[in-house]
Amino acid sequence: xxxxxxxxxxxxxxxxxxxxxxxxxxxxxxxxxxxxxxxxxxxxxxxxxxxxxxxxxxxxxxxxxxxxxxxxxxxxxxxxxxxxxxxxxxxxxxxxxxxxxxxxxxxxxxxxxxxxxxx
Length: 119
Description:
By secondary structure, the chain is mainly α. It has helices at residues 3-7, 12-34, 40-57, 63-85, 90-112.
């Protein structure tokens, strides 16, 4: 039996967006645990990313609103990280640029498929 049948997925793009947000949520909690527990904004981004992943996977109507919240939070986080580390740590700069691009790609994709989320 294929994975698509096991998960009952009609749209692989929304599943990919859900997996992306799960990965980002877990990465946020790893950063929170390993770097500095005082980074409350990273924990908040992780919680909202995991909630967005759940909403996308279960096709909840609020997932579209949640994904826009995550996109704007990711944009602010990425731009501020790029601004403060410009040139000093190229790995962080590249990671934040890739994160920003993928976040907006999945946001636009989910917004274009909003009919499949119960709207």
